[in-house]
Specification:
- It is found in: Cell membrane.
- InterPro entries: Neur_chan_lig-bd, Neur_chan_lig-bd_sf, Neur_channel, Neuro-gated_channel_TM_sf, Neuro_actylchol_rec, Neurotrans-gated_channel_TM, Neurotransmitter_ion_chnl_CS.
- Ligand-gated cation channel that allows the movement of sodium and potassium monoatomic cations across cell membranes when activated by zinc (Zn2+), copper (Cu2+), and changes in pH. Could also transport cesium.
- It is a multi-pass membrane protein.
- By secondary structure, this protein is an alpha+beta fold.
- It has 2 domains: 218 residues, Distorted Sandwich (Acetylcholine Binding Protein, Chain: A), CATH 2.70.170.10; 134 residues, Neurotransmitter-gated ion-channel transmembrane domain (Methane Monooxygenase Hydroxylase, Chain G, domain 1).
- Helix content is 39%, strand content 23%.
- It has 10 helices and 11 strands.
- The strands form 2 sheets. Strands 1, 2, 3, 5, 6, 7 and 9 form a 7-stranded mixed sheet that branches. It has a 4-stranded antiparallel sheet with strand order 4-8-11-10, with no helix packed on it.
- Helix 6 runs antiparallel to helix 9.
- Bound molecules: 2-acetamido-2-deoxy-beta-D-glucopyranose (2 copies).
- The site of one 2-acetamido-2-deoxy-beta-D-glucopyranose has 6 residues, from strand 8 and strand 11.
- One 2-acetamido-2-deoxy-beta-D-glucopyranose binds next to strand 8 and strand 11.
């Protein structure tokens, strides 16, 4: 808003200047503020000039004006990984020297005066990553001391976009940038020197700030300073709510392999597990963010889990079908008396090891042997998949694709 007003004012000035100075030289915005009064056309109304002069940027010879910025980060209250945004509350303390505002303290003995921000030059700041910025004080006041040191406090709440690195979600850590630009001045007139102070006292947060840095990018056309927040996810919730149920389901599925293939409950058991897992999976996929590159490893992990459960259920169904076919064939062959005998023995003696039955139950023992082998392979596969994932979790890093604005030859920031 400040920047807008300043711009409006400037635009208005230009308009007046060009309208009244048709005969004079064309007035350029940059030369404008250092233009001596004598250069103005004689019929130009000079009455406003002393007033307007104080809202032009203070001159520091050939060097840019140095503005000292202290950034107090007082809260980071909403980290939304699904929308890739982070909300924060900051307090900026800007200080610079404007000798035009100095006064003789012998004549006017005061330690400091307070001036409305629009009566003097202040840098207009724009945050590049912001979705919205709420400047809490619409008309902040600046403190000026007798030497002309100006001090201005700006409190703001902002929601900014941040590319979280979620590969290791829920143990992720990301750097989020807040780039402050002063678009109404050029880098030749204005330079920032920034420091950041972490003033967060609240600990009841999923994401905590592990580090806070500021930097002033070099070779920018527009004066700029950047605040980088290093956010770390400390939440146990995702581990408790996602990993534990997933592991428990997998374990339950492995245990289901211990049920005899002939028991009808086995298919019911596995299908129930699979159904339960599908419900869990769909809610999980909604809870995890996705992106064009570097998706969370957990998404792959849970998909592999789903595939394992499906394979184990299909194995049970197929071998049960084989067993049923073997039974049918066996039922067709032997005499009714023998069949009845076998029927009697089935419940009391589940292990068909008797040599008399081996010929008839060949299909069955084949199915059971296959089931046994599959069970061993499955257990080994499950254990291996867990180890592979642990290894991936520890060693995997992900390099995001280059940003579209930086990849194309004509994208990116303009450079000096
Ligand atoms: C003017 O520029 C010099 C050199 O960069 C710097 O040391 C000094 O602090 C600046 N003065 C103001 C008022 O910014
Ligand atoms: C933040 O800014 C730094 C320095 O300009 C840059 O190297 C880094 O890639 C930026 N980080 C993000 C997440 O944009």
């Amino acid at each position: 808003k400040m920047a807008l007003q300043l711009l409006l004012r400037l635009a208005f000035l230009r308009l007046t200047a060009t309208a009244t100075a048709t005969a004079g030289p064309t007035v350029q915005e940059r030369g404008f503020r250092t233009l001596p009064a004598a250069a103005w056309p004689s019929h130009f109304d000079l009455n406003w000039l002393p007033v307007q002069e104080t809202i032009q940027i203070p001159n520091n010879g050939s060097a840019p004006l140095l503005v000292d910025v202290q950034v107090f980060v007082s809260n980071v209250f909403n980290v939304d990984i699904l929308r890739y945004t982070v909300s924060s509350m900051l307090l900026l303390r800007l200080s610079w020297l404007d000798t035009r505002l100095a006064w003789n303290s012998g004549v006017y003995p005061r330690r400091a005066v307070t001036l409305p921000w629009d009566s003097l030059w202040t840098p207009g700041l724009t945050i590049q990553e912001a979705l919205w910025v709420d400047w809490q004080d619409q008309s902040p006041r600046a403190q000026v001391d007798p030497d002309g040191h100006v001090e201005l406090y700006l409190a703001l709440t902002t929601e900014t976009n941040c590319d979280f690195e979620l590969l290791h979600f829920p143990r992720d850590q990301s750097d989020c940038n807040l780039s402050f630009y002063a678009f109404s001045n050029t880098a030749l007139e204005l330079e920032f020197r920034a420091h950041a102070v972490n003033e967060i006292v609240s600990v009841k947060r999923e994401y905590v700030i592990r580090d806070l840095k500021t930097q002033v990018p070099v070779q920018q056309l527009v004066p700029c300073f950047q605040v980088t927040l290093r956010l770390q996810n400390t939440a146990l919730k995702a581990i408790i709510a996602l990993l534990v149920p997933g592991e428990a389901l997998l374990l339950a599925d492995v245990c289901g392999g211990l049920l005899p293939l002939r028991a009808a409950e086995r298919i019911a058991y596995k299908v129930t597990l699979l159904l339960g897992y599908l419900v869990f999976h769909s809610s999980l996929v909604q809870a995890l963010p996705s992106s064009s590159s570097c998706n969370p490893l957990l998404i792959y992990y849970f998909t592999v889990l789903l595939l394992l459960l499906i394979v184990s259920t299909m194995e049970t169904v197929l071998l049960a079908a084989l067993l049923a076919r073997g039974n049918l064939r066996a039922k067709g062959g032997p005499s009714p008396a023998l069949r009845g005998e076998r029927q009697d023995h089935r419940d009391s003696e589940p292990n068909p090891e008797a040599p008399s039955r081996r010929a008839k139950g060949s299909g069955r023992s084949l199915a059971e042997a296959a089931d046994h082998v599959f069970f061993l392979v499955y257990v080994v596969g499950v254990v291996c998949s867990q180890f592979i994932f642990t290894g991936l979790w520890m060693w995997a890093t992900c390099k995001s694709d280059p940003a579209p604005g930086k990849a194309v030859p004509h994208g990116g920031q303009p450079r000096l």
